[in-house]
C-alpha cells in the first residue's frame, strides 16, 4: 500500500467549503438553536423601553448602545455551541486530523457561526432601530457597524470557545475571558453611531472597526486552532 | 523487509502525575495488524491518541516514514485514519451526509460509492434517516463505513468493536485481515475476543512494556 502524496489531498478551499456546508446543514436541522440568539436580541431591545423609559428622546440617545449591547450578549450566548457539539460527537477530532491547515478549517466554522448568528442580528437591526426611534441615517450607520463588528465578535469568541472546550462549566469563564476583548469593539461601534448623530464624520471610526476586523481575521483563527489542539490534547 | 510506516522511539507519557509508559519503542510495518493490549487505564487510548497526533502530552520521538512526524505533519495526516471512542458522527445528519462530510476533507467520493459502503455495513435503507434515530451500533457502523472507502495506509482504531454485533465483529476482522494482506497497517485496541491471524501484540503494563513480534 503506497503512501499517498500530498497533492492527492483535498485543497484547503474545498475543505473549508465542506466544513461550512456541514455546519449550515446541521444548524438548519436544529432551528430552535438558530432562533435563540435572535429572540434574546429582540427581547432585550423590547424590554428596555418598558423597563427604563419609553421617552423618545431617551431612546434616540441610548438606542444604538442598547442594540449593540444586546447583539454582543446574544453572540456571547451562542458561542458555547460553536465547538461543543463537535467536541462531544467526535467530529472535532476528525477536523483536527484533516490534512488541511487547521486555522483555515476553524475560520470556515467561525464564518458559519457568523452567518448563523451575527448576520441575522444585522438584518433584524433596521426593524428594532425603528422601534427605538432611531432616524434613517443612524440606522444605516448602526447596521454598518454591526456588519463590521459582529464578525469580530465571532472570531474573538471562537478563541474563548476553543480554550474553554475541555471544561465542564465553561460559560462563566468564557464570558470573563471574552468580554474584555469585546469592549473596544463595543466602544467604537456605538461611538460611530453617536458621532453620526452629531453630524461628525464617521470615516475614522469605521476605519478603526475595519482594522479590528482585519486583525481578528488574520490572527484569531491561528489562536483558535492552537487552543483547539490544546483542549483536545487534554481531553 | 519494508520500511516502517510509523516508528516510536522511547515514548514516554505521563497523565495526571502518573506515568503510563516509558521507553516504549516499536515500529508499525506495512502489512501488519497490531493489537494494543492492557488493563483499563493502562493507556491504550492515550497511546493511540498520541500516535494519531491528537495528544501532545508525550516525550520521545515519533518518525513517520523515517522523518520526524512534526516535520511531515500534512503528509502524515493525509495517510493516517483515526477512529476514536467518539465516532465522529453528527446525530442530526443522515449516514450518507455524515460519510460525505467525513470524506470531503480527504477524498471526496460520489454518493454511489458511499451508498454502497453503507449498504455493505448493513445500513441499506437507512441512508436518509438522521443518525440520532439509529442505534449505538448502527451509528458506529456509519463510522466504520469509512474503512470501506479509506485509502490511508495506516489505520488507528480505538475500540472499534464496541456495540457491534457478532456478525459485524466478524466482518471487521475480515476487513482488517484483507487490509493487512493488501499492504496496509492497522493498530487497534479492543476488549473483545478478536481473532486475526498474525496479529502482533503491544502490551502496556504499568512500569513494564512488552512488544511481542
UniProtKB/TrEMBL annotation, chain A:
It is a multi-pass membrane protein. GO terms for cellular component: plasma membrane. GO terms for biological process: cytochrome c biosynthetic process; cytochrome complex assembly. It is found in: Cell inner membrane. One of its GO terms (molecular function) is heme transmembrane transporter activity. Pfam families: CcmB. Keywords: Cell inner membrane, Cell membrane, Cytochrome c-type biogenesis, Membrane, Transmembrane, Transmembrane helix, Transport. The chain crosses the membrane at residues 34-52, 64-83, 103-127, 139-165, 172-197, 203-228. The keyword Iron does not apply. Its main location: membrane. Required for the export of heme to the periplasm for the biogenesis of c-type cytochromes. Belongs to the CcmB/CycW/HelB family. This is Heme exporter protein B.
Amino acid at each position: 500500500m503506497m503512501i499517498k502524496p500530498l497533492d492527492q489531498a483535498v485543497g484547503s478551499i474545498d475543505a473549508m467549503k465542506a466544513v461550512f456546508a456541514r455546519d449550515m446543514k446541521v444548524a438548519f436541522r436544529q432551528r430552535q438553536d438558530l432562533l435563540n440568539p435572535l429572540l434574546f436580541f429582540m427581547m432585550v431591545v423590547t424590554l428596555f423601553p418598558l423597563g427604563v423609559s419609553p421617552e423618545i428622546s431617551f431612546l434616540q440617545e441610548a438606542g444604538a448602545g442598547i442594540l449593540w449591547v444586546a447583539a454582543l450578549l446574544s453572540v456571547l450566548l451562542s458561542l458555547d455551541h460553536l465547538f461543543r457539539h463537535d467536541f462531544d460527537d467526535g467530529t472535532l477530532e476528525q477536523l483536527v486530523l484533516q490534512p488541511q491547515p487547521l486555522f483555515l478549517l476553524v475560520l470556515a466554522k467561525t464564518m458559519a457561526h457568523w452567518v448563523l448568528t451575527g448576520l441575522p442580528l444585522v438584518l433584524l437591526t433596521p426593524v428594532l432601530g425603528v422601534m427605538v426611534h432611531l432616524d434613517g441615517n443612524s440606522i444605516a450607520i448602526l447596521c454598518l457597524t454591526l456588519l463590521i463588528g459582529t464578525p469580530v465578535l465571532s472570531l474573538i469568541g471562537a478563541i474563548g470557545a476553543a480554550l474553554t472546550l475541555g471544561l465542564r462549566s465553561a460559560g462563566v469563564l468564557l464570558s470573563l475571558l471574552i468580554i474584555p476583548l469585546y469592549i473596544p469593539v463595543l466602544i467604537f461601534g456605538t461611538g460611530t453611531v453617536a458621532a453620526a448623530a452629531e453630524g461628525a464624520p464617521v470615516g475614522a471610526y469605521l476605519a478603526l472597526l475595519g482594522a479590528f476586523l482585519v486583525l481578528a481575521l488574520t490572527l484569531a483563527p491561528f489562536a483558535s486552532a492552537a487552543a483547539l489542539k490544546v483542549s483536545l490534547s487534554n481531553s | 523487509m519494508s520500511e516502517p510506516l510509523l516508528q516510536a522511539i522511547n515514548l514516554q507519557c505521563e497523565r495526571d502525575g502518573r506515568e503510563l509508559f516509558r521507553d516504549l519503542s516499536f515500529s508499525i510495518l506495512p502489512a501488519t495488524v497490531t493489537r494494543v493490549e492492557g488493563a483499563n487505564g493502562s493507556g491504550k487510548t492515550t497511546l493511540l491518541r498520541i500516535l494519531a497526533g491528537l495528544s501532545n502530552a508525550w516525550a520521545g520521538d515519533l518518525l513517520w516514514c523515517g522523518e520526524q512526524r512534526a516535520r511531515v505533519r500534512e503528509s502524515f495526516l493525509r495517510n493516517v485514519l483515526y477512529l476514536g471512542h467518539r465516532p465522529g458522527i453528527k446525530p442530526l445528519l443522515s449516514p450518507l451526509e455524515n460519510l460525505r462530510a467525513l470524506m470531503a476533507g480527504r477524498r471526496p467520493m460520489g454518493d454511489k460509492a458511499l451508498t454502497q459502503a453503507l449498504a455493505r455495513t448493513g445500513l441499506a435503507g437507512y441512508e436518509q434517516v438522521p443518525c440520532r434515530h439509529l442505534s449505538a451500533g448502527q451509528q458506529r457502523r456509519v463510522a466504520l463505513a469509512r474503512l470501506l472507502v479509506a485509502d490511508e495506509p495506516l489505520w488507528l482504531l480505538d475500540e472499534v468493536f464496541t456495540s457491534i454485533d457478532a456478525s459485524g465483529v466478524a466482518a471487521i476482522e475480515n476487513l482488517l485481515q484483507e487490509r493487512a494482506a493488501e499492504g496496509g497497517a492497522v493498530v487497534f485496541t479492543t476488549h473483545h475476543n478478536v481473532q486475526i491471524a498474525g496479529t502482533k501484540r503491544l502490551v502496556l503494563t504499568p512500569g513494564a512494556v512488552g512488544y511481542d513480534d
